[in-house]
Write a structure and sequence with these properties.
Layout lengths: L4 H37 L2 H20 L5 H22 L1
Length: about 90
Amino acid sequence: MANNASARKRIRQTEKRTERNRMHRSRVRTFLRKVELAIAGGDKAQAAEAFKSAQPEMQTAVTKGVLHRNTVARKMSRLSARIKALNAASA
């Protein structure tokens, strides 16, 4: 247990920050889930639309420091490649 004021303050700050990070991470996962479902359904237009709405959420998570920029870059690259392959497979 914290014994001084600064330690108590740090605990309060950590709790707030953890809650905020959890919110952003959950939001990103929700958007990614929508993209994954659209890809699994084979609907290229819906997948592209879901991906377009997921990109700003992922970038926001990077800006807020919730996710690393290379992680987001890798995820976006792989998703866009899967969407592009979906188009090639249906043609």
